[in-house]
Amino acid sequence: MAAKADINKFDKKMKNSLFKITSRKQMKQLGNLTIGLIHDRTRNSGKGVGKPNGNRTTLKKVSKKYAKWRETFKDKHPKAASGLKSNLTLTGDMLDDMQLIDLSKSKFEIGYGDSDNQDKSDYQHAKGRRFLFLGRAELKQLALEFDKQVRKITSKI
Hints:
Blueprint: H1 2-21, H2 24-45, E1 47-49, E2 56-58, H3 64-72, H4 93-96, E3 98-103, E4 108-112, H5 115-126, H6 136-154
């Protein structure tokens, strides 16, 4: 009789824990981590990812004309690239506007709050500066974070 009660108690704890694993809070944490990874890779390293689960690649250089104009721009972000390098950070608006636009207990979607920033992102993608895909290393990092959160939750069972 005691074993059955223990099994029922364990079963209830397990169901509660599984519900917590796939919560909106969990997805929000993973979504915000994803945005941070994209920001860091793009702004700090000038890298993109050409296809989903691909390798990091240096972002396509800007034109000489644009590079010359960018040097005269007054309101540059402190981390704006110089020369022909690209890190998609002239003012910082586009990358800083990335946010979770759809969130549920099983998924998240990243997008922009401002349609102008969405247009900028689409333009950069069309020009070959693909930065919104996640690379292998980033996917591994997200999986490790998810595993860490699952271990934390299930350790309480």
